[in-house]
Design brief:
The chain has about 230 residues and is of the alpha/beta class. It has a single domain, classed as Vaccinia Virus protein VP39 (Rossmann fold, 3-Layer(aba) Sandwich), CATH 3.40.50.150. It is about 30% helix and about 25% strand. It contains eight helices and ten strands. The strands form two sheets. A seven-stranded mixed beta sheet has the order 4-3-2-5-6-10-9, with helices on both faces. The protein has a three-stranded mixed beta sheet with strand order 1-8-7. It is globular.
Length: about 230
């Protein structure tokens, strides 16, 4: 448990790295599955909102080492394209179709995919507007997007996403707070509708097992949204 907590709550004076610098250091040890308690809570919420994937074309956006892309293939997706802006993470990504790209400029034609999955990534960016606009652009009419983020409440309460690099030092990863209102505004501007929201809460959901004396029971730890592009 102590090791899991260190990944969420840094010791004093932990340096914060840009997401690119952080994932360059983290990639070799970053497995393609939910490997800490925060990610397990996030993944349970994401899967509960995931539409049926049989025969669908999916983008695993900010794919990292391919966690959600592999899950999509296991659930019957006909094609998964992994996109990430970290060369180091893509190097360890086992998905066949993958490319280097930012969420703000997707190398895909308009209306070409059925769904976009983006896990715990948009918080690395100071603005949601360009990313949600790009997600909307590549979705076909009626398509969906499933997005998760480190919950603003837990971040504002002082918690950080951290990792231990091969040099033995612990770092925090750059994060920008996006409230639900920010997602609602950016989604509306992109022509997307938020149709479902989950906020797994500390101590109130069985999937949220980690705890900290600094965090009140009932605090939401991740924000998960399913958005739809109107047909």
């Amino acid at each position: 448990m102590h090791k899991l907590l260190r990944r969420l709550w840094p010791a004093p004076n932990v340096s914060t790295l840009s997401s690119l610098s952080a994932y360059e250091r983290w990639a070799a040890a970053y497995p393609p599955h939910a490997h800490n308690a925060l990610m397990q809570a996030e993944e349970a919420a994401m899967l509960s909102l995931l539409p049926a994937l049989s025969g669908q074309r999916i983008v695993d956006l900010a794919s990292g080492t391919g966690r959600y892309g592999q899950l999509a293939l296991e659930q019957g997706a006909s094609q998964v394209v992994a996109l990430d802006n970290s060369p180091a993470m893509l190097h360890h990504n086992r998905l066949v179709e993958r490319a280097l790209a930012t969420s703000e400029a997707l190398p895909l034609p308009p209306a070409c995919v059925d769904g976009v999955i983006c896990g715990l990534a948009l918080g690395h960016l100071p603005s949601l507007i360009a990313s949600l606009a790009e997600i909307s652009r590549v979705l076909r009419p009626g398509g969906w997007a499933l997005i998760s983020d480190f919950h603003p409440f837990i971040f504002l309460n002082g918690q950080r996403r951290t990792f231990t690099a091969p040099d033995g030092r612990t770092y925090a990863v750059e994060h920008h707070v996006h409230l639900y209102a920010d997602y609602h505004s950016a989604a509306g501007a992109a022509g997307l509708v938020i149709e479902a929201v989950l906020e797994p809460r500390l101590g109130l959901d069985t999937t949220v097992r980690f705890a900290s004396a600094a965090t009140a029971q009932g605090t939401p730890v991740v924000l998960v949204l399913r958005l739809r592009k109107p047909a």
